[in-house]
Design brief:
Helix 1 packs parallel to helix 3, helix 1 packs antiparallel against helix 4 and helix 4 packs antiparallel against helix 5. The longest helix has 27 residues. By secondary structure, the chain is mainly alpha-helical. It has six helices and no strands. Helix content is 78%, strand content 0%. It binds fe (ii) ion. Fe (ii) ion binds next to helix 2, helix 4 and helix 5.
Length: 164
């Protein structure tokens, strides 16, 4: 397998590992059982991607990543900081899903060999399903408004709010 393709697969694996770690963090702060259940399910999907893509990398004689890289540590750290409760956890994961949706979309456009294409396409569909559920959850719960903490921060920065 082309070295470029192996690198592309390893990047997807690293991002799937990061998303799995982020879901773990986000699930830990959620109280809503439906969200917890979905986050557990999505985490499993990401881990399955890690295992299945890793298989192809190994077959090419390369050891796939098994721990978070620098970007993964940042994603996990950001998710830990941003996730305070259900709403902020879902919004943080929406950002992470955007990254993984884009990464899979780029991989599909990168001209992967035929034997990998269906696997990457299937994973991309998982990512689209994750994003679609998150978008629905945000709408359903009325979280599709500017985050109150951002409004507060802006008011503070403009000096229109006195410090308590
Ligand atoms: Fe995902």
């Amino acid at each position: 397998m082309d070295e470029k393709i192996i690198q592309c697969l390893n990047e997807l694996i690293a991002l799937d590992l990061a998303c799995a770690a982020a879901y773990e963090v986000a699930r830990g702060v959620c109280k809503d059982e439906e969200i917890q259940g979905k986050f557990a399910e999505f985490r499993e999907d990401h881990l399955r991607h890690v295992a299945e893509l890793g298989e192809h990398v190994r077959r090419a004689g390369v050891e796939p990543p098994s721990a978070l890289d620098t970007k993964g540590v940042i994603i996990q750290g950001f998710t830990t900081l941003a996730s305070q409760e259900d709403r902020t956890a879902v919004l943080a994961m929406r950002g992470n899903e955007e990254l993984s949706n884009n990464a899979y979309a780029s991989a599909l456009q990168a001209g992967v060999p035929e034997e990998l294409r269906s696997l990457i396409a299937a994973n991309f569909e998982d990512e689209r399903r994750h994003m679609s559920w998150i978008r629905g959850a945000v709408l359903l719960r009325g979280w599709d408004v500017e985050q109150p903490e951002l409004r507060e921060l802006s008011a503070e920065a403009r000096g229109t709010r006195r410090a308590a």
